[in-house]
Structure to design on (232 residues):
């Protein structure tokens, strides 16, 4: 709730600072009833120093994932590619050199997203990466509401867990629990698609009041602490 209040306050402030009035649609109330699953792959893991190298966005309408209407773009970064990042997403310097600069990609992406809520796995990272470009272009931050599938999963599995419960929020753990297919990870489109699938399953579970079962036995070595595993 506190984060949502902060988002709304920032959006109200950013609306006044918007550098280009043609983007006012970003602040309008969404009436589409849709959400957008979003994922970015990056040249590294430092939000300030690294760049987006690919991005994908997929609309979700009702219970349908509209893959045929997805947005995908390869982005030419300004920062050098880190070896550790190349090992993750398999995009080499030669691959991203074929991409377009973010100043061309971002207006298209914003037009695709509009004011729809954004869905993703640790979506705050993707939004923060895009915000640095958005701030440079328009002097604002993305005002869209964010829906993190790891938080939805936590609520369905661990929301009523006793102290000492081991908590596993890994990407693969969520897919396994929800019985979803394992797509090749760290591809922007595949990750956006998987997040969309997670979202729909978890949303349906919440609407039906269904929880994800937890093992009855708790690791006694945890004591009273809660262990959170967040590695992707």
């Amino acid at each position: 709730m506190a984060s949502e209040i902060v988002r709304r306050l920032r959006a109200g402030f950013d609306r006044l600072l918007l550098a280009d009035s043609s983007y006012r649609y970003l602040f309008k109330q969404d009436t589409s009833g849709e959400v957008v699953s979003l994922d970015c792959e990056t040249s590294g893991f430092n939000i300030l120093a690294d760049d987006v190298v690919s991005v994908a966005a997929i609309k979700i309408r009702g219970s349908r994932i509209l893959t045929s209407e997805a947005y995908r773009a390869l982005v030419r970064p300004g920062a050098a590619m880190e070896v550790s990042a190349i090992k993750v997403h398999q995009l080499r310097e030669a691959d991203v050199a074929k991409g377009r600069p973010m100043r061309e990609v971002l207006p298209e992406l914003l037009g695709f997203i509009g004011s729809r809520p954004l869905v993703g796995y640790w979506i705050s990272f993707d939004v923060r990466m895009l915000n640095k470009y958005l701030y440079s272009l328009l002097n604002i931050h993305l005002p869209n509401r964010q829906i993190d599938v790891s938080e939805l999963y936590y609520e369905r599995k661990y929301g009523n867990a006793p102290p000492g419960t081991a908590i596993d929020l890994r990407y693969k753990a969520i897919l396994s629990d929800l019985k979803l297919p394992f797509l090749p990870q760290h591809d922007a489109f595949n990750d956006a698609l998987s997040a969309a699938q997670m979202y729909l399953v978890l949303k349906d579970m919440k609407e039906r009041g269904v929880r994800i079962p937890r093992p009855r036995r708790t690791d006694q070595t945890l004591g009273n602490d809660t262990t959170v595993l967040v590695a992707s």
Q: What stands out?
A: The beta strands are 34-42, 52-61, 64-74, 118-120, 146-148, 167-168, 228-229.
